[in-house]
Amino acid sequence: MHTMWKGTISFGLVNIPVKMHAATENKDIKLRQLHKECQSPIKYEKTCPVCDKEVDNDDIVKAYEYAKNKFVILEEEELKALQKEQEDKAVEIVDFVKLEEIDPIYFEKTYFLSPNEGGSKAYSLLRSALTDSGKIGIAKMIIRSKEQLAVIRVYQNTLVAETIHYPDEVRDVQDVPNVPEEGKTDEKELETAKMLVEQLTTEFNPEKYTDEYRTALLELIEDKKNNKDYTATAAPEGKPAPDAATNLMDALQASLDRAKQDKPKPPQPKPKTKEKAVKKKKAAT
């Protein structure tokens, strides 16, 4: 399992060196977009709409939009300085609470924690303390340069860190539109609904739940893989090279056109005036 973070868990004077691993994975089937004409993958390039050109990473700066089209530019050095201040912080457990006191709306992502070198004894100690007390730890930790609030708990004999939202990240339920007020419920309807709940009540078994759409989509893809009418091979990247004869003819024509434009025009004879014409006529007689 890939190690994505190394650090320590601390509570009181106890420090536990740990490694962190992603506990979940996204199994969504990612579909690519192809050009219908040649079946080449579509690219998404970073472009500036004002300069009308592609922008390199070196020419991009980070900024915060505090009002419409008004930005505060943040230098990379400033951001790195803030990150460095947080780098040395461990996963510090600040409180112990009961799991049922936290509403599921706060939970975000789960990570497995394994003991790092020399951490097995302290790891087992914290695991046993959490199990016997029925408590979980509330901790602060840094993941990808962001300070996270997290829960440290036991899951099947393994410590896990579960990131949770800060209170100001959870929207106010009062803002949810069209929620009906508490009203009087028909007693007969309520009893019938409760009976239905009882009939459908069972022990939670995660293995019985599957993503039926993903399964059906994978089966469809497998079926179509063996049918040439539904498969495609992307064309080589880059524009196809024109025929050599076409290149030469274009070059010759362009050269000829340029030569015609650059060739100096022969001097035009000046128009004779009426007076000069009369003098020339007298001299001849």
From TrEMBL:
<dbReference type="Pfam" id="PF02735">
    <property type="entry name" value="Ku"/>
</dbReference>
<comment type="similarity">
    <text>Belongs to the prokaryotic Ku family.</text>
</comment>
<dbReference type="InterPro" id="IPR016194">
    <property type="entry name" value="SPOC-like_C_dom_sf"/>
</dbReference>
<keyword id="KW-0234">DNA repair</keyword>
<comment type="function">
    <text>With LigD forms a non-homologous end joining (NHEJ) DNA repair enzyme, which repairs dsDNA breaks with reduced fidelity. Binds linear dsDNA with 5'- and 3'- overhangs but not closed circular dsDNA nor ssDNA. Recruits and stimulates the ligase activity of LigD.</text>
</comment>
<feature type="compositionally biased region" description="Basic residues">
    <location>
        <begin position="271"/>
        <end position="285"/>
    </location>
</feature>
<feature type="region of interest" description="Disordered">
    <location>
        <begin position="251"/>
        <end position="285"/>
    </location>
</feature>
<keyword id="KW-0233">DNA recombination</keyword>
<keyword id="KW-0227">DNA damage</keyword>
<comment type="subunit">
    <text>Homodimer. Interacts with LigD.</text>
</comment>
<dbReference type="InterPro" id="IPR006164">
    <property type="entry name" value="DNA_bd_Ku70/Ku80"/>
</dbReference>
<dbReference type="InterPro" id="IPR009187">
    <property type="entry name" value="Prok_Ku"/>
</dbReference>
<keyword id="KW-0238">DNA-binding</keyword>
<feature type="domain" description="Ku">
    <location>
        <begin position="52"/>
        <end position="181"/>
    </location>
</feature>
<protein>
    <recommendedName>
        <fullName>Non-homologous end joining protein Ku</fullName>
    </recommendedName>
</protein>
